[in-house]
Every structure is written in C-alpha cells, then in structure tokens.
Specification:
The protein is α+β, with helices and mostly antiparallel strands. The protein is 51% helix and 19% strand. The chain folds into four domains: 203 residues, no CATH class; 194 residues, no CATH class; 213 residues, no CATH class; 226 residues, no CATH class. It has 30 helices and 23 strands. Strands 12, 13, 14, 15, 18, 19, 20, 21, 22 and 23 form a ten-stranded mixed β-sheet that branches. Strands 2-3-9-5-8-6 form a six-stranded mixed beta barrel. Helix 2 packs antiparallel against helix 11, helix 12 packs parallel to helix 26 and helix 26 runs parallel beside helix 29. The protein is globular, with a radius of gyration of 38 Å. The relative contact order is 0.10. Belongs to the ABC-4 integral membrane protein family.
C-alpha cells in the first residue's frame, strides 16, 4: 500500500498542471459551500440580534410575579437566565398632545435589565441610580413634549384607578379618559440622563396609556448581587423576563404551561396554529388562562430564530433555498471534478495495467484513486473553507452598503463551527462522489486492455463519416477536426455540458434581473407624483392652509390636497357596456349600486384640474371622471384582459343622488372610515351591497355635474376603488345649505396630499421638520410615502439579489472553466503524437492552427446550439409564470446577454486551445512520436 501511495504522490507532482487545476476546482466548490453556510449563519445571527434589540433578549415575559416567588425562576433548570423590571407607577404629563397617552409609566430595572431589555439609547447614557431616568424619543415626536438630556423633571407617580369599576387598571390597558384617575401619588424628582427608542411591544404595548420612562432599582441590583433576599420585599410585584435553555425551547409550550399552572396539552394546542381547537376546548383554555398564575407574553420571533430544531416556519424557506443551492453546487462540482479524475485515469491507464499485471489487486487500484482524491482534498478543502469565509465577509459588507437606508437591520458577519463542519462534510462528499466512479473504472480494466489502451475509443466507422461540405470549405484540417470531435465525444461531453450549464444560468439570471428592474419601473410609471401624504386626525384639516404649507416648501413643482368622502349611488345611469360588466361581476343583479368618492380639492388644484380637463363653470358642481379600466374575461383567449370603457350616461347639468349613512354612537366607531382606510364591505371595483347601504340612517345629497372628463388630477391616476367626483371647498359646502350640517366631517373623511417634488428626499425632510414642531399639526398623524425612495429601495433589493445570483454564476463558471481547461489542455497533450505525426507528413503551422481553431468552433457551436435555446426557453417560462401574477409583461429575449455569452464562450475555448497549441509547437516532432507514455 505504501508503494501505491508513493506512486500516487509522484504522479500528482509530475502532472502539476492537472493537479493544480483539480485543486482549484475543489477550492472553488468548497469556498462556495463555505460561503453559503456562513451567509445563512450570518443572516440567522443578524435576525436574532435584531429581534433582541427590537423586543428584548428574552423568550417569555411573566407579569405579576411576587418578589418571594423570584427564586422559583432563578432555580428553574429550564430557565437559562432572567432579568426583572419593577413598575413604579404612572404620572400625568402636562402638555401632552396625544389624548390617548397622557401618562409617563415609570419602570425600574438594574444592569441586567438595561443590557438585555430593548432599551436602545439614542443619546446620553443609562440610569445608574434611583435619581436618574431615561425617556423615550416618541415622547417628543408623538406627545410633543420636548425634554432634553440634563433636564430635571418632577413626577407625581401613582396608580391608575377606574371609578366606574372601583378597581385598579393594569399597566398595558388603554386610557379610559374620564373614567380613570391617579391615586396614592408620590412626588419624585429625576434627572434625565438619556433618550432611547420606544421600547418594543414586549415592554410597551402599542395601546398603553403611558410613555415608558426607565430608572434604576437598587433593590433588584441587590437581589441579583446576592446582597439582599427576595423575602425581605415579599409583596413587591415584578415582571420577570426569562430566557429558556436550548433543550427547554424544544418543549417551550410545556415548560411555560407548567410555570403558569395550566393544562400543558391544551396550552400547546392553543399555541399551534396548524391545529384547530373545538369550541369547548377554546372556552376551557380561556378559563384556564383567566386563572393562570401569571400573565405572559411570548417573544415568538426570537424563539423561532433561535430554535434550531424543529425548524420554525420563519427560517424554513431560507434553509430550503440553501439546501437546494447546496445540492446544485454539489452536483455541478461532482460532474466537473469527476472529469479531472477521468482524465487522470486515462493518462495512467497503462500504469494501472502494468501494476495489475505484476499483482496489484482491484482494491489497491481503487485505493490509489481514492488516495489521490484525499491528497487533493487535504490541500483544497482548508484553502476553500478560508476563501469562502473571506468571500462571505466581503459579501456582507457589500450587502450592508447596498441596503443602507432601507433594510431594517445591518447584516452581521458570523461564523458558526457546526455550519463550517457541515460545509467541510459536503466538500468531502463532493470529492468522494467525484472519485468513486473513476476508481471503479480503473479497477475494472484488465491488464491487456490497459496496456493496449483500446477501450477509450469505441466508435463505429459509420459515425466518423464526415459531411462533404466540411471538406470543401475547411479542407483536410476541418475533416480531422470533425472526426476528432466525434471520436473523443466522451471527453468533450463534459466541456459542452459545463458551457451549457453556465450559458443557461447566465441567460436566465440576466433575463430575471432585466425583468425585475422593468417591473419596478412599470409599477411606478403610473404614478404622476413622488410624495404621497395620508393624514389621520380627530379634527378638521384646513386644506387651503395645508396646501400653502406644501407649496411653500422649496422644490414643489406641483401639488394637490384633497378631502375624500364616500357616498353610494343607487342604480346609477350605466352605459350599456359598463352595466353589462357590473351585472356579470355581481351575479346578474339588476339592482347594482356603486360607491362614489367625492374629493374636495384645494382651490388652486381644482381650478388647474378644471382647466386641464377643459371644463368651464366647474365651480357650479362636480367634475365626473367617466372612464375606467377593468379586467374583462375574454372567452376566445380564456384570459382576463384590460379594457377601458365609458361608465355612465351623465352629462353636464345632470344631478346624481348620493347617499351616505349616519350611525349612532354605539356603532359609529366600527363603521366609520378612518385615516383613509376604506370599509371592508367595498370591493376593488366600487360595488356596495344593499345590506351595507341600509345599515344605519341613510341620507342623501343632490350633486350637480359641472362636467364630464376622462382626465384625473395628480395622485388619482391608478385609483379604481370607486367612481371619482371632484369639487372645490365652496361647491361642497353648498351641498349642506338649507340648514343641513355636514355630518360627514371628522369621522367620515380621509385626507390626502400628493406632491411632484424636484428632490423627493429633501422635500420629505423639510416637510417633516416643518410639521414636527408645529403646534397646529400636533394632533395630526402624517404617513409620508416617498415613491422615489421606494423605487430606489426596490431596485437595491433586486441589485442585492443580483449580487448573490451573479456571484453564484461566477463561481459555478469558474468551476466549469477549470474543468474545461483541464479537459482541453490534457486532450491536446494526449494527442501530441497525433499532431506530431500530422506535422511530420507535411501539415504546415497555418493548417495546424486552422485545425485547432475549427475544433474550438465545433465545440463552441455545439454547446451554444444547446445552451442558448435552452436559456431562452427557461427565461420564457419564467415570463409566463410571472404573467400569472401580472399580465403586463411582454417577453423579449435578453439579446445582450445572449451575444455576450456567445462571444465569451468562443473566446474562452479558443484561448485555451491556443495556449495548448503554442506549447505543442515547441515540441520536437521525433521525440514526441517516440514517446510511448502519451
């Protein structure tokens, strides 16, 4: 065996070029696998760290824990660690503009709480004693109270008391307004030492009545340090945030149920979304939770990110994609690296025959091939692993650079030893499967066949028949080139396959990227604005004053402010086409009502819109948009196609009876349209069912049509949820004449504004600064959509996907190229006797070069004839799949990618064969012919 190993090592040293090329292939395959597992590990680690910052470093929160019960958590073997917070109480905030959040909720914790809780500092530092406090940023942005670091504040801290139920109110309950007061208040003075982000949902409920202020607790610090017993403050109530052990996470429901004292199976069933509970079980579960020892909050996202087994749905898709990519890498690498071993066997087939003739067994010959693979792996795998880690580090930095500003978290580089071990195992498997087939082949060859070397080429003479056109065009060199390709079909098959794989992948991914960017452009092409503003408030907004604010900001090229009111119209005057469409959509109903949206525009925008639409005397009534585009089913093509149609028969001077509902106080909150959100009873074509219309008290208004148009003002170009009517402020108020009061204001109005800004980012920044400190807009919540930024973010996302996709192509291509170099260069060397013989009988250097060029052309053409059509076919199928989601995509082959692919393939093959040919030209003809080892 030692002799076989020595021979194997000697052969590797003698065939340095092939050895180096094979090692490069192994390095690339290992690097790709290592990079893959490192990126998956980095993404998982980043998501865990993001969730810890967002909601806190805990798995389950237990509320209402008495100080004397704290030891039960500290000594629980299923709990890895805990930190605690103590509720000090609520204090009224003077000057708070948020009527639903008038308090400060003072919470105390220690170093562990500050470290593991979701207290993310923006400015200053954390509290270090009981006289210091940290306040949240949204106290200023939401509550409009401006307190700075270094300020002294005095708080009257007490308990919330509900006089109607004569009970204390839980800390996360919403504000009860007139029904509640503060009792048992204690005055406390603090120094503000820091400002933090708003704590996550696990620490501050979104509906909570107080802004979370955090101070330091000497008591909790003393307990954690062991200098104070829990029993000394037995009646104090705490909130305990616990981290489970990895073993406990696998049975988290059973562990949690045991701590809070409820039925384990019932609790587990209730927390399993895939299992349906019966009504009886649901009632029993609710009763059990009402009587549970503690209230709980489960940090489900952190648990799903950290729980390796069983894999949660959050990461199942990621791991599935990673597994598929790993499988593609392994199969591609096995196919390519296997060819290196096949070439090695072909080169050494005589040697194996001689070894077999002097007594080497099949097992020893097999072992020799596997030893060669192991030696190559010992060099290639460590270098490949380190290269993959380095590539991952670079890629993480590229990802963070590309995603800056739109990704909610920064991707952190993280290596995992188990993940790297998995990559090494996959690399070993790749090399093993690459070498196994070649080892079997070497062992099967008999000594006589090996020494004669006649088994490599088995082909019938009929298959070597050359088309006459090749001889006429390219002469004897073309005939020899063609016959050599046919004769060595097995050797060149791997080269062709490698080119096909790379070509298809490049064409498909290039098409996907161009289609993705095209789709992004199409999705924003219909938008005729780049800043959209939706407003939610509890009072009327003066749209004229707000329009002056928008127009006064530098860079506003055009703008519009609108207040939208929903009305229903019973049996409107449909055109024949639109009426038939509505009856088909709504089951042939004869009584089809429609939703009409009357939008009141600011005067300047309305006058401009009326002028653009060519409507005179527009102030006398409303402008009706009388055209719409709908998806209509085409029976011939069996597809839905977009069709534009005229909607109604109304003309200038006609009157439309618009109805609206007025609800009593008990139901108004459930039926009102708030903050621009349409009622769920309306579908996307504006149809309103009779049950909705008749709910509540229905009233009507007569709206006169001032003009009909197919034009729409900015912001409403793609609006299709209702028929559009536009009016100015004066015209709309005239509808409420004769003693009527506008019953739709405040609760039934949605405010929106649209701006065409020269620089959307600068305009948004200025707008936010103008409104943030303005007391006039303190009770208005603004939701700003920056379409330019959204489009950039979407393009950045696809660019990011492109980095991964093209990176994968590059590495797979490099593996393929090493295989092509190995195949072609070794093939040229093995044929050096043949070339020397041809040159000895008179073939000139020019003829020899032409013959090699023709072989390059034949190989390239064969690969491209398969690869290019296959790439076009797959890209077309991708287009068909995408069209099922959006029928607007027209297939156009990626011509640039196809041309680039053709040019690169031809140049690559020619360059490799040219280099090999140059080396053969310098060989001595006689010495080459005499060399029996070729």
């Amino acid at each position: 065996m030692n002799l076989m190993k020595t021979l194997t090592l000697k052969n590797l040293k003698l065939n340095r070029k092939r050895t180096i090329v094979t090692i490069v292939g192994i390095i690339l395959a290992t690097a790709l696998l290592s990079a893959l597992v490192t990126l998956v590990s980095s993404f998982q680690y980043s998501m865990i760290e993001y969730q810890k910052q967002k909601d806190g470093d805990f798995h389950v929160k237990f509320s209402g824990v008495k100080m004397s019960e704290l030891s039960e958590f500290k000594n629980n073997r299923n709990i890895e660690s805990t930190f605690e917070t103590m509720g000090m109480g609520f204090a009224k905030l003077d000057g708070c503009k948020n009527e639903d959040k008038p308090y400060a909720y003072v919470m105390a914790t220690d170093e562990a709480g500050f470290e593991k809780g979701c207290f993310n500092l923006i400015e200053g530092r954390m509290a270090k004693n009981e006289d210091e406090i940290v306040i949240p940023r949204h106290l200023r942005t939401n509550g409009r109270i401006d307190i700075k670091v270094g300020d002294e504040i005095t708080l009257d801290i007490g308990k919330r008391y509900d006089s109607s139920t004569e009970s204390f109110i839980w800390e996360n309950c919403a504000y009860e307004h007139d029904a509640e007061t503060l009792t048992d208040t204690v005055t406390k003075q603090y120094k503000v030492v820091g400002i933090m982000e708003r704590p996550g949902y696990g620490m501050e409920d979104y509906s909570a009545a107080g802004y979370t202020f955090v101070t330091y607790s000497d008591e909790l610090a003393a307990i954690d340090n062991g200098t104070k017993s829990e029993a000394s403050e037995a009646d104090t109530t705490l909130t305990v945030y616990s981290r489970y052990t990895q073993k406990a996470l696998r049975n988290k429901d059973a562990v949690t149920a045991d701590i809070i004292g409820v039925d384990e199976k019932l609790f587990e069933k209730a927390n399993n979304s895939s299992v349906e509970m019966s009504a009886e079980e649901s009632d029993r579960f609710l009763k059990e939770m009402e009587n549970a020892k503690y209230d709980i909050y489960i940090n489900r996202f952190l648990i799903s990110y950290e729980c390796v087994f069983p894999i949660d749905g959050s990461f199942k898709a990621l791991f599935t994609v990673a597994a598929v990519v790993a499988l593609i890498i392994i199969l591609t690498s096995v196919y390519c690296i296997k060819n290196s071993f096949n070439i090695s066997i072909t080169e050494k087939i005589r040697q194996y025959g001689m070894l077999a003739s002097v007594g080497a067994t099949r097992r020893q010959i097999k072992s020799s091939v596997k030893t060669e693979a192991a030696m190559l792996g010992v060099v290639g795998i460590p270098v490949g692993t380190l290269s993959g880690i380095l590539a991952s580090l670079i890629l993480v930095k590229v990802v963070n650079a590309l995603s800056a500003g739109w990704l909610n978290f920064a991707l952190s580089f993280h290596t995992s030893l188990p993940a790297l071990i998995l990559a090494v195992i996959m690399s070993i498997a790749t090399i093993y499967f690459s070498a196994t087939g070649s080892a079997r082949r070497a062992a099967k060859v008999t000594p006589l066949e090996a020494i004669r070397n006649t088994k490599e080429i088995k082909i019938k003479s009929s298959k070597l028949k050359t088309p006459a056109i090749i001889g006429r065009i390219w002469g004897i060199g073309g005939v020899i080139s063609y016959k050599n390709i046919k004769r060595n079909n097995k050797k060149y098959r791997t080269t062709v396959t490698s080119i096909v794989i790379c070509s298809v992948t490049f064409i498909v991914i290039s098409y996907f990227m161009s289609m993705a960017f095209s789709m992004v452009g199409m999705s924003y092409a219909s938008a005729d604005y780049n800043i959209g503003i939706n407003m939610s408030c509890k009072k009327d907004i003066d749209i004229e004053k707000f329009s002056k604010l928008l127009s006064g900001i530098e860079g506003a090229e055009d703008y519009l402010v609108g207040a939208g009111y929903d009305f229903d119209v019973r049996k409107p005057k449909y055109t024949k086409e639109y009426g038939e469409y509505c009856r088909q959509v709504y089951d042939n109903s004869e009584d089809v009502s429609q939703m009409f949206l009357i939008t009141v525009l600011d005067d300047k925008s309305y006058d401009k819109y009326a002028s653009d639409a060519g409507i005179k005397n527009a102030a006398a009534g409303a402008i009706l948009v009388n055209k719409g585009t709908f998806d209509v089913y085409n029976e011939n093509s069996l597809k839905y196609v977009k069709k534009e149609m005229e909607l109604y028969k109304y003309k200038a001077g006609d009157t439309i009876e618009c109805g609206y509902n007025v609800y009593d106080d008990a139901s108004s909150d459930d039926n009102a349209v708030e903050g621009g959100t349409e009622s769920s009873t309306e579908d996307n074509s504006g149809y309103v069912d009779e049950e909705t219309i008749n709910n509540g008290v229905r009233k009507t208004l007569d709206v006169t049509i001032a003009g009909v148009t197919d034009k729409v003002p900015i912001g409403y170009k793609s609006y299709s949820y209702a028929t559009l009517l536009f009016m100015n402020q004066k015209g709309f108020e005239s509808l409420w004449a004769d003693g009527k009061s506008n019953e739709l204001k405040q609760r039934y109005v949605s405010y929106s504004a649209y701006v065409v800004a020269e620089n959307a980012d600068e305009y948004q920044d200025t707008f936010e600064k103008e409104t943030e400190g303005n007391p006039e807009y303190s009770q208005i919540s603004f939701y700003v959509s920056n379409l330019d930024k959204q489009m950039r973010d979407e393009k950045s996302l696809f660019t990011l996907l492109g980095v991964f996709a093209y990176g994968l192509i590059v590495v797979i291509a490099l593996i393929g190229i090493t295989n092509i170099i190995n195949t072609l260069s070794t093939g040229m060397e093995l044929r050096s006797r043949e070339f020397a013989t041809l040159r000895s009988i008179g073939m000139t250097d020019k003829q020899f070069a032409g013959m090699v060029r023709l072989e390059s052309v034949f190989i390239s053409v064969k690969a491209l004839v398969i690869g290019v059509p296959l790439g076009i076919l797959i890209s077309y199928l991708l287009c068909v799949i995408m069209n099922r989601m959006d029928g607007a995509i027209i297939y156009e082959p990626p011509y640039k990618a196809i041309i680039l692919c053709i040019v690169v393939v031809i140049m690559l093959i020619y360059a490799i064969m040219k280099l090999s040919m140059t080396k053969l030209r310098h060989n001595n003809i006689i010495e080459t012919i005499k060399n029996e080892n070729l």
